[in-house]
Every structure is written in structure tokens, then in C-alpha cells.
């Protein structure tokens, strides 16, 4: 039997608990992980910049879809956003190269592996003996961009959403909705929802609300999938500065609900349903993963050989440590080989330098000997020259003496 609430005679103070939680939450800040999936060129990076009014992707750091290498690989970008004293640690996961290959078989596998790896990290953090503040890197929402073909979903779209609808909150978006007329866009929405229901794809369902908010959320549900237009360019439309795209026939305003569903998506994603997206991720998708993970550790050989989840996790940890030890040994072996190769190169270089030094030494010695030989030859020639000069001087002197003697004889 339910207890009846008891009215208090005076103020106690526990009505202030929401304020305490508010102050604690603001102090800690909030975390939100958003994944964007779609073919290249559908405006994913532009929409993210428009949603959070920040240059998450810019010319200096372009979006993954604009980079040269386009492989189906999940790339994450983190940014800290502050608004009125409230901080939001936003993580955006992009999938460059998705749907761009000729053969797109299993192109969703990297996305699934990324989502489950974040679930695995969170489960391991929860199972530690000493648990600190858990960092929630789980993917809370997946914005799936649909090309504005006007002909319904592609087989790739259907298969991708089937593979991920039980792992993440999927919100389908019609990209570049300004390429269609309002009637074409409405028919395209109806066709997409019809195919989603036919294929039994479970997209994100809005929570039940009170009667006052029911009409508002019914309008919100009627706009799924959201037809969006992204633009970071501010232009002048009728004397008013708006973000949009300029066309010869007019301006497609991003924040005009009559032109696209951008404001509806932003309000739903950030202002009204962000916490519900996180709750559904934690209470539904993560719990499903956790249940499957822990139930799979039970042995199939019988109750006598069954292991508890903690024991199984310890075994997995031991196996992981063994793998890490093996990887460490392999890395040490590679490092040892590289050091040996470097040492051998240094020894070869040293031997080559010694050989060159010896050759230069011999060359210098031979040149030195040649110079000594030339010096000796010069000394010999110098001595011969001096002796010859001395003889010439003596001969001249003797001739002078002879001349003097002859002159003296003639006088007498």
C-alpha cells in the first residue's frame, strides 16, 4: 500500500536538494558524445559547427571528410564549450570514407567496434576495485545523414541502421534539404518513415510527456526525420543578419523553421532531450551490452565449472596482461634488433673512417717524403752552385794576381 505524503508544519529544507544537485552538476560539468555518419559531402562538419556555434572544424583543422585519406575509420574530436557558466565536454565522432567505396560490405564494422569498445571501457572502469570518477565516453547519439535523393532509403542506409539500432540512439537526418521543395521534402520524409517501419528499425523514441507538453512533442515527432540545412555564413536577408545560403531565388535560412528543421533538431538534441539521450544510452543500450557481456562469461560445461563474472574478468585481465607481456617482449626484440643494426652501421662507419684516415696518412707520408727528397735535391744543387761560384771567384782572383805580376815585370 502506497504511503500518503505527510504535510509538514514548518520548513525543513530538503526541498533545496535540487539546488544542491544543480550546483554539483554545474561544478563537474557535462559530457556528451555525438557521432555523425554519412557519405562525404553531405555537410556533416558544417552542421556540427552550426549546432554548437563553434569552429570545431575549420580551414586549419578541416573535417575528416575533407582530408586526403578517406578510410572507413572512426575519428574523434574533443572540444570544451562554456555557456553561462555551464561547461560541456563535447566529443564528436566522424566516419570519413563511409559509403564512398565501390564495395561497402561491412563498412559499418568500424563504427560498431568503436561503440562497443567505449562500452567495454566503461564496464572495465565500473569493475575496478578502486573506482574514481567515471569518464563517460560512450556514444550517446548517432546522427545518420541521408542523401536528398527523394527516392527513399538506400540499401546501405537500411543495413547500417539495422546493425546499430540496438547499440546507439539513431536520429535520421535529411542532409541538404534546401535542394528539395517543401512538398518533395515532406513526401521524402513519409517514404523514409514508411521504410523504417517496414524494416522494423528502431530509431530514437521521444519519452512520454505530460499533457501540457504532449502537443509540443507530437509536433516534434511529426518532423522526424529532420530535414536540415547547415551554414556558417552570415548574410543579409531583408535587413536582418541571418545564417543561411544565398540562392538566385532567395535565401535559405538555417534557423527558420519554415525553411528547415535545424532549430527543431538543435532544441531536441541540446535543450530538451540531451539528458534523455544519455539516460537511454545508459539504461538501455549499455545495459544490453553489459548483460550480454556478463552472461557470455558463464561456462557451458556445467554448473561445476561455471565461473563468476568477476572470476572471468580476472581471467580476461590475466590473458590481457599475458598478451601485453608478449607484445612488450616483441617490442624489446625489435628494439634490440634496431640497436644492433644501428651499432653495426656505426662500426662500419668507424671502419670506413679509419680506412680513409689510413689512406690519407699514407698519402701525406708519401708527399712528405717527396718534399724531403726535393729539399735534399735543392740542398745539393745549392751546394754545387755555391762551390761553382767559389771556384769562379778563385779563378778571377788568380787572374787578377797574374795581371798584377805581369804589370810589375814590365815596369822593371
> Radius of gyration in whole Å, from Cα?
44 Å
What form results from the Cα inertia axes? elongated
How much β-strand is present in the residues?
5-15%
Instruction: Please report the total strand number as a whole number.
Output: 9
Structural class: alpha/beta
**Overall pLDDT level:** 81
Order of strands across the main sheet = 2-3-1-4-5-6
Given as residue ranges, the uncertain stretches (5+ residues, pLDDT < 50) are 299-305
Helical percent range?
40-55%
- Count of helices? 9
N- and C-termini, Cα separation: 180 Å
Listing every helix as H and every strand as E from the N terminus to the C terminus, the arrangement reads: HEHEEHEHEHHEEEEHHH
Describe the sheet with the most strands: 6 strands, mixed
What does the model show?
The strands form 2 sheets. A 6-stranded mixed β-sheet has the order 2-3-1-4-5-6, sandwiched between helices. A 3-stranded antiparallel β-sheet has the order 7-8-9, with no helix packed on it. The protein is elongated, with a radius of gyration of 44 Å. Helix 7 (262-272) packs across helix 8 (274-295). It has helices spanning 17-28, 44-52, 109-126, 155-164, 182-198, 211-222, 262-272, 274-295, 309-411, and strands at residues 30-37, 75-83, 86-94, 141-146, 170-174, 226-227, 234-237, 240-247, 250-253. It is of the alpha/beta class.
